[in-house]
Design brief:
23% strand, homodimer, Phosphoribosyl-aminoimidazole Synthetase, Chain A, domain 2, transferase (chains A, B), 6-stranded mixed beta sheet, 11 strands, alpha+beta
Chain lengths: 321, 321
């Protein structure tokens, strides 16, 4: 394990790996913590039907992105990650080293350079599995939660919407099917990349705190499903305007044409993109780089798209994603 | 997940489950953190060769015990646990609920009643796997590490030594072999119980801090192997006196006779008992309830038993455990 940990590059902890636990600073006397797991054949495939292989680097990156996104969604800055890797006996060493490199690269490139890799654990298993727990600090601010959305607040998102879902659909397309004969366009490749290595906007969680976001979460299960969680936690209607969802449609167009799917399906229901979904008291509070996509209304908790229940619009086509 | 989390009983967090992360207090502005995983067929068997079945309760308890022990070994008091459970589709719901009950019971009965279950994650997998990350606080004290042992310090242990290893040997004995015909004695059953549900001395880590332990760790891979880690981290000889290791031999006797093994093998090399191993400046510093088992000497890092390298004594019989 010592050798593998040495492959991780990260900010130093107060006490790093090498003892039974590491020690991390929590300057304001509190910290946030979350945990997430990626399992082979559930959250990724070592080899996809399309023939693409998931590298250790991809899995390390995705684990970091997914976990850091949860910390970001609270409005916090990541301080530490501990990683447990379970691997079949025949996993190549370079694949395992790739996990460390990918995790470290995500920390640096996504803007979490102050997060320490504080420890880890490698064990044997029948299938590849990686669990990371990540902590963060809020510099004295209150955490953003799901229950603070109020009528007349503006709904806004920041990050990629739909591309990771389109990427999943492309990866799942069997290489032998006629649909995959043409090579992927650069937009399609970008969608695939965002499925394999998501890019949550990690600098934006703390920005949302400064702008007093009234509720926030990350979109890991799709916009409609996650907006439903804010609706229920806050006791409000989340009314989304589909004409405001065009900002990320361009990159989905080629995949939509190839697979004969309305790209808006991915925008509304595609998961794993880890965009931020938040509500703000007014349009003026929405930070630059964010997109206002609707408004909070009083009423029985539900999500509306263009004033209709999404199911009436056929947008649940991808609800199994 | 909400329903499963409701089965856990624990102290409240500053902000509990239900958002993307929970928030935990770190009153002195620092926290310790560690992570550990239990995987089916690696760390436990759903059904052992002896016919014993591991319950969800056992797995939950063992995960809590193993992880809390790491926090204890730093001298800290556990503040929070986040748990990720990966389960095959056919896992019975009562087995999963048992995990929550066992985890919660271990917190309470082992003396970690101030630890919050701060969140979790349940996903699908091909085999059962549970990862917990646990945090702790030190009330301003310095963490105990492995590198502080100095010549003339006293080596001491607290907790069960060898019973979990003997229990493993009993569980691994095929029901059909002649050796298992007699039912287990109460001592043998106790060994099996300590393998399935270890009992780390969770109140003793903080006591060791008060008594200024110069180094500390928990014994998860066996006394010899873990003492070797302190020897290397501190650059010292760990000289153990086998005549001081008799305090826990009684409970091993029946298993030793049945399996025709010198019980001292389990005491020296049995893992998963999660006793504490520490060094103290003098015999007077060793807290009551602890056992002095040897002394630290200057020299090339190694472990000696009765002034010999353990391999020369045949004690590595169980080194694969």
């Amino acid at each position: 394990m010592g050798r593998l940990l040495s492959r991780y590059r990260s900010a130093p902890a107060l006490l790093g790996p090498g003892d039974d636990a590491a020690m991390i600073a929590a300057p304001d006397g509190r910290f946030v913590i979350s945990v997430d797991t990626l399992v082979e054949d559930q959250d990724f495939r070592v080899e996809w039907p399309s023939g693409v292989r998931t590298s250790g680097y991809d899995v390390g990156w995705k684990s970091a992105a997914q976990n850091l996104s949860d910390i970001n969604a609270m409005g916090a800055i990541a301080t530490a990650a501990v990683i447990s890797l379970s691997l079949p006996r025949d996993t190549p060493l370079e694949w395992v080293e790739g996990v460390a490199l990918g995790f470290s690269a995500a920390l640096e490139q996504l803007g979490a350079g102050r997060c320490s890799i504080a420890g880890g654990d490698v064990g044997r298993s029948g299938e590849i599995s990686i669990t990371a727990a990540v902590t963060g600090h809020l510099s004295g601010a209150e955490p953003r939660v799901r229950s603070g959305a109020r009528p007349h607040h503006v709904i806004a998102v920041c990050g990629h919407l739909g591309a990771a879902g389109a990427g999943l659909a492309l990866l799942d397309q069997p290489a032998s099917s006629g649909v995959s004969e043409r090579p992927w366009s650069s937009d399609e490749q970008r969608c695939v990349d965002l499925q394999l290595r998501p890019e949550p906007p990690l600098r934006e969680g703390p920005v949302a705190v400064v702008r007093r976001a009234s509720s926030m979460m990350d979109i890991s299960d799709g916009l409609l499903r996650d907006a439903g969680r804010i609706a229920r936690a806050s006791g409000v209607v989340m009314a989304i305007d589909s004409s405001a969802l065009t900002f990320d449609l361009d990159v989905l167009r080629d995949a939509g044409e190839r697979l004969e799917i309305n790209p808006l399906n991915w925008t509304l229901t595609g998961g794993e993109g880890h965009a931020l979904l938040a509500t703000y008291a007014s349009l003026e509070d929405v930070p630059s780089g964010w997109h206002a996509i609707g408004e909070v209304r009083a009423g029985q908790p539900q999500v509306l798209v263009d004033n209709h229940e999404p199911s009436a619009l056929g947008f649940d086509h991808f609800s199994g994603v």
